[in-house]
UniProtKB/TrEMBL annotation:
It comes from the Bacteria. This is Sulfonate ABC transporter substrate-binding protein. NCBIfam families: PRK11553.1, SsuA_fam. Residues 22-237 form the Solute-binding protein family 3/N-terminal domain. Signal peptide: none annotated. SMART domains: PBPb. It comes from Acinetobacter chinensis.
Length: 307
């Protein structure tokens, strides 16, 4: 690993903002690039005067809550959690996104299920993490099927609890993202009723506390720079990345590999484009229409741009 780290270090300009004394990061098992940044200590090199702490969360809503109460400086989530947070008037900035990965989320049914099309979800119990990217996927799937949101029975469960319910047959379907998706597919022989293709772009977003950005605007560049350095390494070392992810998360190597293979190449971080903002606004509008979130919000108001 020393050679890899040296390679990354040689291609990066360290100490972009030496004033950063602390960087508290929220991540999930799905955060491949953050996993490599953490494993190769890229932020320790980028911010040599800072204490770097990594905090794992089961899903995006938990990260946004921690960000809102001042427990985190930056975090990574799917598309829906920041919409929920902004609607609740919680402070946040979108600082970057990763390319859409619609194939990395799905609505799953047990191997022996008789369900073969989305319209058959009417009246069914569907496990989903409330306020997660899978929540939006399910909203879009129900809409595509010509059903009303009230036609289904969402069962609000965390990924771990949802999987247990899915395995026991306590729910009819499960809306979920990778790596939980890959794990259920490979280990439980779960069948894909619908992927995110044509339903949800399934963006990954990097978010920051407004206080952190205000104090350390230059640091944002360094944060994004090292995410991209990590992604370049991932693209060149995909098998080794799967092994590293397996060790750090406890996932089997074939699950990690499936998860990695479903990500676009490259999957670095970039400032939000007008299309990404528009896609995210569509998500917010859909949730407003269904009264899932109160009132309406403007995504652009939460998008940070370098001065």
């Amino acid at each position: 690993m020393a050679v890899c780290c040296a390679m990354l270090g040689a291609s990066s300009a360290w100490a972009v903002d030496p004033s950063v004394k602390e960087l508290r990061i929220g991540f999930q098992k799905s955060a491949i690039n953050f996993a490599i940044v953490k494993q190769q200590k890229l932020y320790e090199k980028e911010f040599p005067n800072a204490k770097i702490t990594w905090n794992e969360f089961p899903a995006g809503p938990h990260i946004l809550e921690a960000l809102a109460v001042g427990s985190l400086d930056i975090g990574v989530t799917g598309d829906t959690p920041p919409v929920y947070a902004q609607a609740a008037k919680k402070p946040l900035y979108y600082i970057a996104y990763e390319a859409a990965k619609p194939l990395a989320s799905a609505i799953l049914v047990p191997e022996g299920s008789t369900l073969t099309q989305l319209s058959q979800l009417k009246g069914k119990r569907i496990a989903v993490q409330k306020g997660s990217s899978a929540h939006y996927l399910l909203v879009q799937a129900v809409r595509k099927a010509g059903l009303k949101w009230t036609d289904i029975q969402p069962i609000w469960l965390s990924p771990a609890d949802a999987r247990a319910a899915f395995q026991k047959g306590a729910v009819d379907a499960w809306a979920i993202w990778d790596p939980y998706f890959a794990s259920a597919q490979l280990e439980d022989q779960a069948r894909i009723l619908a992927s995110g293709k044509g339903l949800s772009p399934n963006y990954t977003f990097y978010l920051a506390s407004p206080d952190f950005v205000k104090k350390h605007p230059k640091a944002v560049k360094g944060i994004i720079q090292q995410i991209n350095a990590a992604d370049r390494w991932v693209q060149k070392n995909r098998v080794e990345t799967a092994q590293l992810i397996g060790k750090s998360t406890g996932l089997k190597s074939n699950v990690s590999q499936t998860f990695i293979d479903r990500r676009p190449r490259p999957s670095g971080a970039a400032p939000l484009s007008p299309k990404v903002v528009a896609d995210q606004q569509q998500l917010a509008n859909r949730f407003s229409e269904l009264k899932i979130i109160p009132g309406t919000i403007r995504i652009q108001q939460a998008v940070w741009t370098a001065k």
